[in-house]
Write a structure and sequence with these properties.
The structure is a homodimer. The first copy, chain A, is an alpha+beta fold. Chain A is built from five helices and ten strands, in the order βββββαβββαααββα. Chain A starts with 5 loop residues before the first strand and ends with a helix. The structure holds a DNA duplex (27 and 27 nucleotides).
DNA sequence: TAAATAGTGTCTGTCAGACACTATCTT
DNA sequence: AAGATAGTGTCTGACAGACACTATTTA
């Protein structure tokens, strides 16, 4: 029989703060890389986790006290050198949490517009590379993917939704085009309510359709 | 400390036989699932593999005697039930081998046009699900992705290349559109040679460009 | 009416697919 | 010339982005 590699999960946890993409980083409190910033991570608990996705959500819940609203597998990173403790593999998940649920923003670090492979933060393990890939994936998602929906509260105006898309993609979107695409894709529907700011013309409120919620459920 | 999960790699190995997509399946010769068909798989060898990609290529080489020409990570499948031996995770790779290198076609099984989730072959473990995902991925790759190039010999005519694309995608492509797209994407270039069948107008031979070969190298 | 944001109608450049056309070879 | 495949020119419908327009509210 062979030496079993170490298997962990890491979570790249994104949210939007003041319209800017932020990611969660924790200062490590033990070796290796003690004191250095790192992604959220942990071991699989074989007695309680029914999948690596499950483990990732548990890790986020335990260390952060937050339910993630969406998670998807990014990729599995592996090799003999990435962890000094030995040959390891880490299944990495991209997760998003609603800005409105984040109470403590101290551990969220901004992802600049000019994000490059050259590490902005000097992260432990191979987490610079992982974060780079995660940001690329999230930015390159098709312009009108439903991912940004998981950053919204239960109802929202189309203008609010557009702002979130623009925050994620880091590029302005034409209002008319945005609305046409979002509506025709059927990922949102009017809730029937109206948001009246008493300042100008009130906006219709929308919510994610069942179709989109299914996508969410399937990631649980 | 926790019980370490089992970590394996599985390889979904595709090739084209008579214009039809085929995948490699092996009859298992030990428990669990003795005698049943399964994907190619194996354990990580921590002394010799420098990544799970490496392990996947080694597995293909050892069990098949074939160098794969391209491999990419599909996804990691995990859970307590998928392997009766215990909580396991498998990093799954999609690989392709050149048809011209396959001597023994007996272990390659056709992927029908009407491929659905309903298992055509009754595979061991969760390999039905894995194969389904792999076929979906390969079929849904953008129509003009460079993946089919890795099924070609070193030089080829554009008509041959188009046939391979059509075999993978299972749908006819317009000749003029195909040529324009392929050329403008810069993934192939004329080799300068000519293929003369002595039957009709000879065709120019092409080869993959450096750009594409880099993509291949980066997967090693 | 002015200010502000919500929401829409329409033009245009781009591009993939359709398809007919030309080109070059053998017999 | 006929037959066969290689390779190209051109039209068109769909559609994303640009942008100006209308709509609805408060003050």
């Amino acid at each position: 029989m062979f030496v079993k590699p170490i298997l962990t999960v890491d979570v790249v946890c994104f949210t939007l703060i003041q319209g800017t993409l932020h990611t969660l980083l924790m200062k490590r409190e033990k070796e290796p890389f003690n004191g250095q910033l790192a992604l959220l991570g942990g071991y699989i608990h074989t007695e309680e986790d029914s999948s690596t996705m499950d483990a990732a959500k548990r890790v986020a819940r335990d260390k952060l006290g937050l339910e993630v609203t969406y998670a998807e597998q990014l990729e599995t990173f592996s090799g003999p050198l990435r962890d000094p403790r030995g040959w390891s593999a880490s299944v990495v998940y991209i997760a998003v949490v609603r800005p409105s649920m984040v109470k403590e923003t101290a551990d969220f670090y901004p992802i600049g517009t000019t994000w490059t492979k050259n590490a902005e933060y000097n992260l432990a393990f191979d987490h610079n590379e992982i974060l780079f890939q995660a940001v690329s994936r999230i930015r390159n998602k098709s312009t009108y993917s439903s991912l940004p929906l998981f950053l919204m509260d239960s109802t929202f105006t189309l203008t609010e939704l557009q702002n979130v898309y623009e925050g994620m993609m880091q590029s302005p979107i034409d209002k008319a085009t945005f609305r046409r695409k979002i509506i025709e894709q059927g990922i949102v529907e009017p809730s029937g309510e109206i948001l009246d700011t008493k300042l100008h013309r009130p906006a219709k409120l929308y919510r994610a359709t069942d179709k989109t919620i299914q996508l969410f459920k399937s990631t649980i």
